[in-house]
Amino acid sequence: MLGLKLPTDPRWVNIVEKNIEEILTDHAYCEQKAASTAISLIIGFPEKSELVKEMTALAREEMGHFNMVHDKIIKRGWVLGRERKDEYVVQLMKFFPKGGSRETHLVHKLLYAALIEARSCERFRLLSEEIDDEELSEFYRNLMVSEANHYTMFLKFARKYGNKEEVDQKWNDLLEYEAQLMKGLGKKETMHG
């Protein structure tokens, strides 16, 4: 359903289970960055009324998710750690060349966002099915549905604002690139790494 070319190795969950505090902190910041992405799309493309409306709702939802993750951290007696660099996103963002028209820039941002949401959804599914912590299993099962909806929304907007055939080709190329990138990741207790 997600179109990912390389699934996460299920053994990644074993790494996560050894440091739940770390994955929750990383996850909290992923939610915050997702809200920031939605806000940046509003700021960058205010004339796209439908996009602005959806991104407003998304920013609100993502900050709600941030709050939910933060509550899990506090409930376990921890505090939110410092933000970590997301190597996955850093490497992913190198795929499309810089420059180009405003519309091209928008399509690229939407495709990046769609892929990040798709990978998050896949990771949430894996956690919901494989993690021994029943509370977190249920938590990630519930979040998985939201991430799938976000992925399809971003892809829909990319196809709306760009040439559908070109967007589909770029999406396929990005999926192939991401699969190669994922071969070197999945060894850390981070949401994408």
UniProtKB/TrEMBL annotation:
<dbReference type="InterPro" id="IPR009078">
    <property type="entry name" value="Ferritin-like_SF"/>
</dbReference>
<dbReference type="Pfam" id="PF06175">
    <property type="entry name" value="MiaE"/>
</dbReference>
<dbReference type="InterPro" id="IPR012347">
    <property type="entry name" value="Ferritin-like"/>
</dbReference>
<protein>
    <submittedName>
        <fullName>tRNA-(Ms[2]io[6]A)-hydroxylase</fullName>
    </submittedName>
</protein>
<dbReference type="InterPro" id="IPR010386">
    <property type="entry name" value="tRNA-Hydrxlase_MiaE"/>
</dbReference>
